[in-house]
Amino acid sequence: MVEIDARGRSCPEPVIMAKRALKENEEIDVLVDNRASLENVQRYGRAMKKQVSAKEEGTGWRIEIRR
Amino acid sequence: MADDMERTGLTSLVRSSGCNAKLPPGDLHRVLSELPPFHSEALIAGYESADDAFVYDLGDGRVLIETVDFFPPMVDDPFLFGEIAAANALSDIYAMGAEPSVALSIACFPSCLDLDVLKSIMLGARSKTDEAGCAIAGGHTISDREPKFGLAVTAVYDKDKVWTNGGAISGDSIILTKRLGVGVLMTASKGGECPEDAYDDAVSSMRTLNRHARNTAMRYSVHAATDVTGFSLLGHSAEMAEASGCTIEIDSSFLPVHRSAYDLAAFGFLPEGRYTNEDYIGSKVSFSEGFDQTLKDLMFSPETSGGLLLSMPKDDAENYVRSMEGNAWIIGRVIDRASLPVAVIM
What we know:
CATH superfamily of the largest domain in chain B: PurM-like C-terminal domain
CATH topology of chain A: Translation Initiation Factor IF3
CATH topology of the largest domain in chain B: Phosphoribosyl-aminoimidazole Synthetase, Chain A, domain 2
Structural class of chain A: alpha+beta
CATH architecture of the largest domain in chain B: Alpha-Beta Complex
Strand order of the largest sheet of chain A: 1-2-4-3
Oligomer: heterodimer
Helix content of chain A: 25-40%
CATH architecture of chain A: 2-Layer Sandwich
Structural class of chain B: alpha+beta
Number of domains of chain A: 1
Largest sheet of chain A: 4 strands, mixed
CATH class of the largest domain in chain B: Alpha Beta
Strand content of chain B: 15-25%
């Protein structure tokens, strides 16, 4: 699984990172550590018609974007 | 040198921009509420009333109205940034129904940047204060890693003509004088994802003074007024509804939204303030069942240099919107206080 580490980044950067990664991969995980990124990356995934889920991991979240 | 700056990008120097840079409203409220209360007979409106500016009674039928607003750049062009920062700061005076008389500039500027950039910012601000008929009488500049600019603006005005956010009455129509979505478009722009035409619309909207909107409204009966900035359409509506003891019902099908803003919001280009705003005022707003998530996102998103939000009798509102020729929209109405201050319907 391709894992994108967007921890420490503020919006819109995590969304842009997810977008780039999804151009080359159908499924990715995105690690985020703030609420705006958690919400925004999930919105991006859903707008791209993907299955999206998120779970807490460490001090942040892992967002799983699946086809 | 200003050209070099444009290539590097003023916005590349800052983490958050425009009214998105406001401290989360809940945090600020907690600090302010813990300060010892201050009372002055002459202070008609202060931070307790959550209005756009303070109003100080001069005792001779006139009041002093004063406000301060500054933020980091949301555009790369320094002149445009100066224009937007000035239009945004002056707006608080227009939202009180007054006209700005004199201003002081507040600037933070990185010592490593060419001073021509600072000059361009100040010239941009000056072009807007000139348009407003307001003098910049001085200011204060400090060295800082991130550039920031704004104005403290003063007006002297007739006490009985001041608009507050507390006079809306049941039966009024609610008017908005600029489109929503600037915060979303600037967030997308920071990621290089904002289409050029939408970016130009947003910039043009932000640098437009609320002067014409205020001057035109002077011909009608304005019961309450504020402007829509960092606390979002819903936040400022809630403040008006609470100050007026009524409920504001917003019909989202009438909301004017900048082109591309809806789509970009759906793709998650939402400023951080969208979430902190909901933390603070979410409990004051009800949405009709199955309400569209993206519209909700837009309505909670901070705006920079947004439009006036006016409460007027229905007939006046219709005439006002007609005289504003496509630059004002009736977006809702005032009803008797319901369970929550703001009700949004589809």
